[in-house]
Specification:
CATH architecture of the largest domain: Sandwich
CATH topology of the largest domain: Immunoglobulin-like
Number of strands: 9
Distance between the termini: 61 Å
Number of domains: 2
Largest sheet: 6 strands, antiparallel
Order of helices and strands: HEEEEEEEEE
Strand content: over 45%
């Protein structure tokens, strides 16, 4: 039984390492963006993204709660367009919103839809793409 458990652990580690190598190899052999959200505001914020994943599917992910100065890697994509949403958390009566009016998506299965802002990345600058949320 102990040997079976050890074998299963070794196989899981090998698969995980293989997936990481495959992702790295994909990034080296094909152009890809890594989208990073940075909270450059002096308030805590929550953010979400709608983007085309590496399999070609449009997905909406959120919430990333970011304290002032924090960042999060939120997407890997080969598509130059993504949609982002953000809002400050407190104080409620003076929230700051980073949103749009054209595209609306649900976040985490909520019944509410949020207006997302379209962003377009420069295809001549593959690699890390940073979206900064500022209070101005």
């Amino acid at each position: 039984m102990h040997r079976l458990l050890m074998l299963a652990l070794c196989l899981m580690t090998a698969v995980s390492a293989g997936e990481t190598r495959a992702q790295t190899q994909y990034a080296q052999n094909n152009n890809q963006f890594t989208v990073i959200f940075v909270n450059a505001c002096n308030r805590q914020i929550q953010t979400a993204i709608n983007y085309r994943d590496l399999s070609g599917n449009w997905v909406t992910n959120g919430w990333w709660n970011l304290a002032p100065g924090e960042s999060a890697t939120v997407a890997f994509t080969t598509n130059r367009i993504y949609y982002m949403y953000g809002e400050s958390i407190a104080p409620v009566n003076s929230r700051i919103y980073w949103r749009g009016a054209v595209r609306h998506f649900h976040i985490r299965g909520s019944s509410h839809t949020y207006g997302f802002r379209q962003r377009t990345m420069d295809m001549n600058n593959w690699g890390r793409w940073t979206e900064r949320f500022t209070c101005n």
